[in-house]
Amino acid sequence: MLRVAVVGSGPSGCYTAQSLVQRDPGVQVDVLDRLPCPYGLVRYGVAPDHEKIKSLQGSLRTVLEDERVRFLGGVRVGGPGGLPVERLRSLYHAVVYCVGAATDRRLGIPGEDLPGSWSATEFVSWYSAHPDAADAGFLRGVRSAVVIGVGNVAVDVARMLVRGAAELRPTDIPQAALDTLSASGLTDVHMVGRRGPAQARFTTKELRELGALPGTEVTVDKADLALDLGDPGALPAVQRRNVEVLHGWAAQPSAAAERRIRLRFFLRPVELLGDGDRVGAVRFERTVPDGEGGVTGTGRYEDVPAQLVLRSVGYRGVPLEGLPFDAASGTVPHREGRVLRDGAPSAGEYVAGWIKRGPTGVIGTNRSCAKETVTSLLADAPTLARADLPADPVVELRAAGVDPVPWSGWLAIERAEAELGARLGRSVVKLSDWDTLISTARVA
Ligand code: NAP
Fold this sequence. Notes:
Elements: E1 2-7, H1 11-23, E2 27-32, H2 40-44, H3 51-54, H4 57-64, E3 69-72, H5 85-91, E4 94-97, E5 103-104, E6 117-119, H6 120-127, E7 144-148, H7 152-162, H8 165-168, H9 175-182, E8 188-192, H10 204-210, E9 216-220, H11 222-227, H12 237-251, E10 259-264, E11 267-275, E12 278-289, E13 295-305, E14 308-311, E15 315-316, E16 334-335, E17 338-341, E18 344-351, H13 354-357, H14 365-384, H15 393-399, H16 407-423, H17 434-442
Helix pairs in contact: 1-14, 7-10, 16-17
């Protein structure tokens, strides 16, 4: 019998566990997560108003409830107070790291850390009830926000900023975030790309959704669109449709609306400017296309007022102590999912998901990524399975001072979230602090 640990219970971890049990009738899989709650970015990254994508939790749940899969929550691997990677490796025939990309990229410009400037990840974690997120007073005194970047995360945070109470109340957003977003005095969101509309990273469905938000007008500057070089007809399908949607908005007459989302392009952030003790504006340099998909600066600048700046310029993997790491790409070096140590495959160590290929692709991309890794692992299995292991890793974990939260603990959290929702006259409402999550899980 092959015993495998999967570290991380987000989509890549769950798809890895699923592929293992589907393809090897003798495998037992423990899925470890540092949180007592499963599903990774599906729970803590997908926006609360994207119920359809969130419903994917149903299929991930089926994986974690398989009789040969065991969820072990509250287990931190690596780092201070965490279970060392070598210790974990000694408890299993193989370990697959599916730990995602846990931090955000930096802009590296002056003023980036002024109060009022946050990574989009921090804002997303707050409205998603991540227990590590703090209520940082994101929206206090904010009338105008700048979102830097034009990917799907930028679209998510721009949309969440203008959503009203009526639209958020039916979601599972924590009550404090709902109250704050509903009461906000924000009127303008500027979403800004350093390159042109044809190079934007958002997908058309997500972009179009901005145009359907109640009480919100979307505007696009014709001058920005006019800078785009080349024939839109020659673009790949997604980019062509994006450009069509943007041209449609640019042609619309202005309408009176409570809130506006203004999409801007060819503006590269160069500095965040302070106003008193916090951010007051973002200085951008106007860029022009270089004809090869990139841009060059023009030496002309534009300041966009903002009391809130959300830097949405992509996620980044963080090193896990004891595992090799390529700082340039923010990933673990691998060959077909096998972790490489000094260029050679390391026996019994694998990666899947964003820590393997970087923070790109949609949730479904993780399925094929996990399959590739599992193919490598199962090819190595005859050799790996020869190792003698302790009888039950959970006994060893407890001996090492780690008491995992079992699946029943997570189910208790689910029940408590449904009860909280009922008390508040809403449907499910997420719990957002460590103490409540852990105490709820432990009484199960
Ligand atoms: P992303 O798609 O990589 O977009 C990052 C954006 O930041 C790009 O516009 C990029 O511009 C810009 N950027 C990077 N460095 C910059 C800098 N120094 N200054 C100014 N702009 C900079 O990343 P993401 O939005 O975080 O999304 C991550 C992944 O999750 C993507 O695959 C995304 O599709 C997925 N996702 C999907 C959904 C959904 O399906 N609904 C929702 C959220 C996330 P350049 O192109 O010029 O580098």
